[in-house]
């Protein structure tokens, strides 16, 4: 009997992380420090890639500028490959002059070496990003990593570009690790493969069981054994042998016995 090996393959990971992190106030005054908050709805988002910000070089950070960033309801910093992810950038102007936010850009790097660039993300441009002195504002940055990017840990470097008195500056608002995960759709490639493999195994198992049942039925239908005792010669069946050497030998044997 041929041996049959059954393989069980089951690999499914669910990522379910939904916890509130930080609520960013957009229209709340700070009476203790005498600061005001700009409404992010008035920042006037222009669009993506209006200007190539990758080749303009780097600038220093202006004094009196603080930045903070947060992934809304995403404390684990999970980024689904190929899907949009929102990142809120908070900027506070402690200086004496107003500033104008020009754009937000970001890039993906390998954690082992930031010189190894993985992907330049889309730049978000603003046409009305003015932040007065002693004020703060929140700017949304929506990005998407490549859908072909393999799941794993990567470093995200985010930079906000702004102008003060027509002088360009930039500040890094995020420089840390994010976790890129596969986008789970209705049917992923792995799911299709597992389902196909499972169906194939069930078909092979059914064929093997069918063969075993047929073998058992054949064995049960063997012909019954017939016991053979002393052979008696029927005269009617030996009539056609009369007069032959066979009948003569039989008659001679019977005479000798007498």
From TrEMBL:
Cellular component terms (Gene Ontology): endoplasmic reticulum membrane
Cross-referenced Pfam families: TRAP_alpha
Sorted UniProt keywords: Calcium, Endoplasmic reticulum, Membrane, Signal, Transmembrane, Transmembrane helix
Topology versus the membrane: Single-pass type I membrane protein
Signal peptide residue numbers: 1-27
Membrane spanning residue stretches: 192-211
Compartment(s) of residence: Endoplasmic reticulum membrane
Keyword Signal tagged: yes
InterPro entries in UniProt: TRAP_alpha
Keyword Transmembrane: yes
Similarity remark: Belongs to the TRAP-alpha family.
Oligomeric and partner information: Heterotetramer of TRAP-alpha, TRAP-beta, TRAP-delta and TRAP-gamma.
The record's note on its domains: Shows a remarkable charge distribution with the N-terminus being highly negatively charged, and the cytoplasmic C-terminus positively charged.
Job of this protein: TRAP proteins are part of a complex whose function is to bind calcium to the ER membrane and thereby regulate the retention of ER resident proteins. May be involved in the recycling of the translocation apparatus after completion of the translocation process or may function as a membrane-bound chaperone facilitating folding of translocated proteins.
Protein name: Translocon-associated protein subunit alpha
Originating species: Trifolium subterraneum
């Amino acid at each position: 009997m041929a041996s049959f090996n059954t393989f069980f393959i089951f690999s499914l990971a669910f990522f379910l992380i939904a916890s509130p992190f930080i609520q960013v106030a957009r229209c709340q005054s700070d009476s203790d420090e005498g600061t005001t908050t700009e409404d992010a709805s008035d920042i006037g988002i222009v669009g993506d890639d209006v200007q190539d910000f990758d080749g303009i070089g780097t600038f220093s950070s202006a004094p009196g500028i603080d930045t903070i960033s947060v992934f809304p309801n995403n404390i684990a910093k999970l980024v689904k490959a190929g899907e949009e992810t929102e990142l809120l950038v908070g900027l506070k102007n402690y200086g004496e002059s107003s500033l104008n936010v020009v754009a937000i850009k970001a890039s993906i790097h390998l954690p082992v070496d930031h010189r190894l660039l993985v992907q330049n993300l889309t730049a978000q441009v603003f046409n009305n990003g003015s932040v007065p002195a002693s004020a703060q504002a929140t700017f949304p940055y929506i990005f998407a990593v490549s859908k072909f990017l393999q799941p794993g840990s990567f470093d995200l470097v985010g930079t906000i570009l702004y102008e003060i008195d027509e002088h360009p500056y930039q500040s890094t608002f995020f420089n840390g690790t994010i976790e890129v995960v596969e986008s789970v759709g209705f049917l992923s490639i792995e799911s299709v493969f597992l389902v196909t493999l499972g169906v194939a195994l069930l078909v092979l198992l059914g064929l093997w069981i069918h063969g075993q049942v047929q073998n058992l039925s054949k064995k049960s239908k063997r012909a019954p054994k017939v016991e053979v005792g002393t052979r008696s010669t029927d005269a009617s069946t030996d009539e056609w042998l009369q007069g032959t050497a066979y009948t003569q030998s039989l008659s001679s044997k019977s005479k000798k016995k007498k």
